[in-house]
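Sharing a chain and its predicted structure for anyone who wants a worked example. Both blocks are below, sequence first, tokens second.
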Amino acid sequence: MTLYEITEEILILLNKIDNTVSNIPSGGEENKAQLLSLLEKDFDQKIIAYAKIKKNLDAEQTELAEEIKRLQDRKKANAARIEAINLSMTEAMLAVNKNAVHGPLFDIVLKALSPKLIVDDESKVPDGFFIPAKPKLDKKALNKWALDHEVDEFGHYEPNFSLMIK
């Protein structure tokens, strides 16, 4: 049975128990507690099983993050090596004034492109070439400010919970 099904069953039985207990003159609350304890065992076991799965997934997330970082570092190092090799080949071909090398596997051609603009001082670039950035909301500062001000005009509050597994 899934956690959803167990939760739904508990809620249905709680409702039925409440209706039944209200009709029993004495001992109704005691019977209710006994029935709930039986249901809560299944519920607790299912919650613990979900927590185990969550902990395993958390650990896997950490491992995946480390692997992604390792692969990103490897990719960056690989890109740097490629750039160094390209620069070495380009400089060597320019030094000996050779625009093409033909071999059994590759034809290497040094092709002149349009010049690349390097900006030395951005403050002297005309304004029309800057892309305006959209302002970003500072939620941390807004939350602090909202403690002493009304927010109904632009927002609302929703319940917020933190699930802790120790």
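Comments welcome. The two ends are 25 Å apart (CA to CA).
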